[in-house]
Known about the structure:
rod-shaped; single chain; Multidrug-efflux Transporter Regulator, Chain: A, Domain 2; alpha+beta
Amino acid sequence: MDDPHLVPAAAPPAIAGTDSHAAPTPSSRKPALLEAAALLQKLLWSVPETAFMCGVGVRTVWRLMADPDSGFPTPRHVRGRTLLPRDEVLRFLQKGSSR
């Protein structure tokens, strides 16, 4: 085993570009799926789209819709979906920023 003529086995080559601290699975793509420019062209927004455009969580949008004193726009129900009119949501945000 200690033969001086024996060439030691080479270590396996490292794979270039690997990160030992990288996540085993890619992160969620949900934020990447929503684009503000595309959403501004739609007349009605879903609750997640409204939350994205308002910069709040989905749960906060549901709470605002449930609170009659908040002044949040009344949602429309279309084929089992809860949709909010874009212009009314933007007006609500404008009123909130002027306070």
